């Protein structure tokens, strides 16, 4: 204050003016800050409103997603049911073929692939019911014939020499007969006219998939159907053609098949690609011996790979000149999912490639079943530790069978597998196997050791609902090849075996997707150079409806 006393009037006025200016500037800054705050608050309010709207929309989308997820799970279950039904029908067809006398050739059929009576009895998922002999066609079969008949034959009574004045129509009897019309091969002369002027030659470009060859899409499809679906060897098919006036050797027929496969290579590659990148990341695998005359190896193999029952069926048959893991690792090099397989140790190497192994529980069960086979009577069998193991295992198979019958979703299956009841069976099974005395019993020792050595992989399926407890699917897929092999017995060369595997892949995948394989092949061969390959895949909705077995 004393300092202000020493100031003159003018100095005080100047000081007050300066202070007022500072106050005014501060007020301006405060007003600007307040405006910024108001603008910020307004912006925050708008953002809050937007967040509220987004939250509301998110909630709405979550509800829609939940509905879509439920619909997807329902579709997955329906797809699984359909695939199971298709497999059931194929199995019935193949069982009939197996029972036929013409498929009784026993060469080159490994004993490991034959189902014994004990196997059938003990596997609750493979029960075969005794078929009743029908004295007349079924109602469904008659209804099918009613839809298919093309002509009518009327048989009237011959009243020659009879007075018909009192005779009146009384009714009719209807029956349906199936006539066979032998296949007809037509030789077509194709004339392509040519024109020219002074400078150019004019001629329609050919879209023939087999230029400079008598081969046609229909003939190619027929020879593939005969060999790779019905198992008729090329030399027999050659005799069949000769009987129709077409002198085509089995060598030429093989060359036709090879040329056809070269044309269909993009289709096979796409099937393989879809297998390796299937939606649920599950592949079933198995292998079976194949004799190749031109190979230096005593035993060659046909490896089989299949998608699960949850997927569109894809079956790949891959030839290997040995059981080594080289080709196995190469084919599955881009795959990072689950592999369901038997106890072949060669599959173990795949874990280094990021593949998770699920061992087949049926194979583990068969080792214990082998223990019972050598016992003389029922009393000895019921006293055997293997008998109790099989009873406990059967409970697991019963659970899995019930899951299929109830058409549970994958998530519901996982929940059931981790229930106390299901886990209790596994605990009892493990505890009992640990308590078994295997002294001086080679078969029992083998069974226990196999189970314990593969215990982790046997139960991979518990935490993934799209996995099966068994590898029965792959064994089912192997069957058509085994049946056909009984007829053609062997392949002459490794190249021929490779071609055989690829054509088997296409034919069997087509059949598994409910297609008439021969008609499908004719269509694909005719259009492979005209249409997008995705439109030709066996499950494409752009395929003509006429190709479906059940339109």
Q: What pattern of helices and strands is seen along the backbone? A: HHHHEEHHHEEEHEEHHHHHHHHEHH
Tally of alpha and pi helices: 18
Task: Note the main sheet.
Answer: 6 strands, mixed
From the N-terminal CA to the C-terminal CA, the straight-line distance is 108 Å
Roughly what percent helix?
40-55%
- Uncertain runs are 97-135
Topology at a glance:
Layout: H1 2-5, H2 9-99, H3 117-122, H4 139-148, E1 194-196, E2 201-203, H5 217-228, H6 234-243, H7 250-276, E3 282-292, E4 300-307, E5 315-320, H8 326-331, E6 338-341, E7 356-359, H9 361-373, H10 378-383, H11 385-405, H12 410-417, H13 420-435, H14 442-453, H15 455-458, H16 472-488, E8 490-491, H17 494-512, H18 517-527
Parallel strand pairs: 3-6, 3-8, 6-7
Antiparallel strand pairs: 1-2, 3-4, 4-5
Helix pairs in contact: 2-16, 5-18, 6-7, 7-17, 9-11, 9-14, 11-13, 17-18
Structure summarized in a few sentences:
This protein is an alpha/beta fold and 551 residues long. Helices cover 53% and strands 7% of the residues. Strands 3, 4, 5, 6, 7 and 8 form a 6-stranded mixed β-sheet that branches. It has a two-stranded antiparallel sheet with strand order 1-2.
